[in-house]
Amino acid sequence: MDELVCEGCGVQLQTEDKKAAGYTPASALEQEHVICQRCFRLKHYNEVQDVDYDDDDYLRMIQQIRNTNSLVIKIVDIFDFDGSFISSLHRLVGNNPILLIGNKVDLLPKSTNKNKVINWIKKSASDYGLKVQDVFLVSAEAGVGFEEVEKTIEAMRDNRDVYVVGCTNVGKSTFINRLIDRTSGVKDAITTSYFPGTTLGFIQIPLDESNFLYDTPGVVNRSQIVHYMSEKDLKYITPKKEIKPRVYQLNAKQTLFMGGLARFDYEKGEKQSFVCYFSNQLMIHRTKLEQADEFYKKHNGSLLQPPDEKTIELLPELVKQTMKLPNRKTDIVFAGLGWITVPQGGITVSFYIPRGVHISIRDALI
């Protein structure tokens, strides 16, 4: 049993404690491919069982990489860069070289300048103190951008192991599944789902006779809004198709609600257009600023959907920030949801986001 691990999530298998990580019925050990009960229910019923790991446990697992001589592949979500970035990564992986992969590029509007996105990711990583060898844009779901990534990985690993790291829900296991499928034809080798934290241990995949590719546990970042969402609402806010920009002409003293999850108030400025980049399924509602508080109290969870009842229980209160935007085209980024592009700066706005979830201002990406 010491050597037997789940092929889905990498956790050590055991047959004694049904509530602990790695449980599988003894009869399942006779099968050729063995997965734990948690992965079985995740794969077949899309249900997730809680396990007794905390956030620091995942970081301690990742820290083992610093004692290796390997290539590190860091996956980030283009739509939640700050929320999906491991700020302590340079300390966790030591001096090992890092390739940075921006996932979900297929969801950006076709008009997006990809070189501009790459330069933005490089600068953002540098601002976090992370030195990277190169940046690539891919879609793990659609298989976009993998030919160049494969060639670079093979050239850079130089007969070393490869560790794939990332925060929860960035598409890390989907990325590895795509690599495995392209090289060996094996589909869905690693358990994936909408839910964060589905990989519980290092999963070892042979690269050659002496080296391996490792899928690592997703690092939990509590600034990710996904940790406060129900299964149903995750599907509303997680883009699955190319984002369609939605344009709203606003006068000062008007408000936009992104469901009941975030709010944008145009406090002061001339009438202008605001371009919203959110999941196509996330409803956006416009109202007058003077009516916004009452509108939210009356319609949160109904007309303002999501959240559903379960998310309302989990979601921290919305907190307000007010600022005057710089006098240039900028994005207001609601971490894990999307962003609003402000074509003309020099205006005063307020925005509301659940307490603890990150919000940022950047030069316009599109």
Automatic annotation (TrEMBL):
<dbReference type="GO" id="GO:0005525">
    <property type="term" value="F:GTP binding"/>
</dbReference>
<feature type="domain" description="CP-type G">
    <location>
        <begin position="56"/>
        <end position="222"/>
    </location>
</feature>
<dbReference type="InterPro" id="IPR006073">
    <property type="entry name" value="GTP-bd"/>
</dbReference>
<dbReference type="Pfam" id="PF01926">
    <property type="entry name" value="MMR_HSR1"/>
</dbReference>
<dbReference type="InterPro" id="IPR027417">
    <property type="entry name" value="P-loop_NTPase"/>
</dbReference>
<dbReference type="InterPro" id="IPR050896">
    <property type="entry name" value="Mito_lipid_metab_GTPase"/>
</dbReference>
<dbReference type="InterPro" id="IPR019988">
    <property type="entry name" value="GTP-bd_ribosome_bgen_YqeH"/>
</dbReference>
<dbReference type="InterPro" id="IPR048422">
    <property type="entry name" value="NOA1/YqeH-like_C"/>
</dbReference>
<protein>
    <recommendedName>
        <fullName>CP-type G domain-containing protein</fullName>
    </recommendedName>
</protein>
<dbReference type="InterPro" id="IPR030378">
    <property type="entry name" value="G_CP_dom"/>
</dbReference>
<dbReference type="Pfam" id="PF21516">
    <property type="entry name" value="YqeH-like_C"/>
</dbReference>
